[in-house]
Specification:
By secondary structure, the protein is mainly α. Helix content is 70%, strand content 0%. It has helices spanning 13-31, 43-72, 74-81, 87-99, 105-113, 117-123, 129-141, 146-162, 167-178. The chain is elongated and about 95 Å long.
Length: 184
């Protein structure tokens, strides 16, 4: 090819399509109706905006506070369900966590799921006194199986050997001699 001359142009079929598509888009934009941001207009739009503002300003914070509170008392409920001997301390830590914005909540959560080993060696049990009251009620009602009763007797004997017997255990000793069992 000689220098100084340009190559002859080759007709590209896609170029015509692109030009036609651009032309059609331009005509569609010029001929379209005015755009609307909402299906509502005027007073209806103002009423919906007012309701949404009240929901965002009043309802959402109330729901947020309730959920925050329910999550923060969860360790206390877990400790109570598991008969943790330090339930009152976990409850106090949950309340302090509410005051300090949740910083103490992970500690309360972990504490609720752990069993205090030193507590058992010091007091002979790792259960809260409420547990013994529930067991006594089940024992008096005759709802304990033979296996549960045998486990209870061995636990009570171990506590007596260590020298610490909770006040609630006296009622269990009294009830265990006077009630029958149910062999489930």
């Amino acid at each position: 090819m000689p220098t100084g001359r340009t190559a002859p142009s080759i007709a590209v079929p896609g170029r015509r399509v692109t030009l036609a598509a651009r032309s059609a888009a331009a005509l569609a934009a010029l001929g379209s109706a005015s755009a609307r941001a909402s299906f509502l207009s005027g007073d209806a739009l103002d009423a919906v905006a007012d309701v949404m503002a009240w929901v965002v300003i009043v309802i959402v914070p109330i729901i947020g506070i309730v959920i925050f509170w329910l999550v923060h008392v969860l360790p206390e409920k877990i400790a109570h369900k598991r008969h943790h001997p330090q339930t009152a301390a976990i409850q106090t830590l949950c309340l302090l966590s509410l005051v300090f914005g949740g910083l103490l909540w992970p500690i309360a959560w972990l504490w609720a799921y752990t069993r205090p080993v030193l507590y058992k060696s010091a007091f002979g049990t790792d259960k809260h006194d409420d547990h013994f009251a529930e067991v006594e009620a089940r024992l008096r009602a005759g709802e304990l199986t033979d296996a549960e009763r045998a486990r209870l007797e061995s636990e009570l004997a171990a506590m007596e050997r260590r020298g610490h017997t909770p006040a609630a255990v006296a009622g269990i000793r009294e009830a265990s001699g006077s009630s029958g069992t149910r062999g489930d």
